[in-house]
Amino acid sequence: MGDPEARDASRTTIAFWQMAVGLCALSLWQGLVALKLLDPFFVSRPTAIAQRIAIWVIDGSLWRHLAATLEESLLGLVLGAAAGISLGFLLGRSPVLARVFDPYIKMLNAVPRVVLAPLFLLWFGLGIWSKVALALTLVFFVMFFNTYQGVRDAERVLIDNVRMLGATERQLVRHVLIPSALTWIFSSLQTSLGFAMVGAVVGEYLGATRGLGYVISQAEGTFDTTGVFAGMTVLGLVVVIVSAGVTRLERWLLRWKG
Amino acid sequence: MMAPALEFDRVSRDFALPDGRLYRALDQISFAISAGSFVAIAGPSGCGKSTLLNIAAGLLTPSSGRVHVDGEPVDGLNRSATYMFQQDALLPWKTVRDNVALGLTLSGVTRAEAHARADAWLARVGLAAFAAHYPSQLSGGMRKRVTMAQNWIIDRGMLLMDEPFSALDVHTRLRMETELLALWESRSADQPPPRLRRSAVASANAESLALQETGGQASQAGGDRETGGRAFQASRDRKTIVFVTHDLEEAIALADEVVVLSAGPAAHVVARHPVTLDRPRDLMELRTSEAFVDLYRALWVVLREEVIRSQRSAEATRG
Question: What is the CA radius of gyration of chain A?
Fold first, then answer.
């Protein structure tokens, strides 16, 4: 724990250095371009990128694309989690099923998701569902493995104790197995969310009419490096903000870890 | 004659080794424990004490032989017992109050009532101020106290304890042993006994003795002195406690009878020794009393042989 004042002080110091690192990098970038050591055609420059983002904010196009990406990510996350958690629980509780499905799950998990994207485009079209499907396949495995692990790793002594205290099989699931799995699931929320966004953006990049991935791919198509960097910057900022929110949620959900 | 609370009848237990051979952990163990008595099972590490206790709990089945509880053969879990494990067994995601109330809520007691009774028990073990805390926020000794409340609240006739205090430091351990005896010696589980009073400032110093002896022990005092330890008659209101430990001192200090198991493999009972020390016992002073030292010497002669044997066989398997 420690002295809260000291902790706040160190937090401000960290924040200061975080800003300093960012500003240094951006100044260096801007400076090298101004000195003509770097060609803005290839690397653009920070001021131009900021300007571009400002234009997107003002004309409202940013929100339309961002909303599409977030919607796909969120749907992918929720559906992938539902599927992964259900199967993880099922196989975690049944060693026989787990052994039967084991090679298939390993095979499917080995498939690079990018090669699935064109298939999903073919199956689900240019709309949001092909992106949701891609996000889902990424999230599914993270959630599946964590749930499976969580159910399997529920401590023997906790199970024995609760049984001795009179728990039925259903009460055992409710009071021990689910909470035990949830700790694993919550700890993987950060990773899952990142994967969901990667899935959505890659899907958009390969074929879409909306979304940040679409914006980036359009810009690349016209050698508009400013647009590419602006799209990447927005994506990065969104991930930082969302993951800060997830960290807080996680801390609250796992508050008993003390 | 009442049936014994717990009876092992030629209980053996084998485990399959990785190479497919069978390892006989327990061999033909037979003894009975009468209701309301406190029996310690001592033996060298790895002799199968915990295995025997798990069989008594119904968590393990014997490979051969039978276990009877109150005269009935055990089928599945032993529903007359709760179990205090060596490791922490509190649910980390439940508050202290919910952990203590768990046995009640599982059996369908309403949340409000379960909480009220849990709070009463928390007060009794001096942790009233920690009801809303999570186990991870408590010290090892406090967690053991929560575990005691969790086990005592559902008021089963038997308590199985597997080296419950072995992870604690010496002083905390002594305190927990004292509290255990105070709880056990009090006749009715739900009423704080007259000779115990609650610690006044439990929150200020939760590690301090929550249950303190205020001297005198009403009904059992005087009279029956000639029968020694028997003066404190095993009462039917009292729990039957089976306490596994590798620490002979702890076994003698707490129990009415010490059962010594041999070193494994094929552990069997090598000695049963009644402990005729007066109750209630003052654990702070007991260990230096002559009667205690005599008992310790007599039992150590037996246990020492087994400890040496177990070390020798451990070295043999290593070499």
Answer: 23
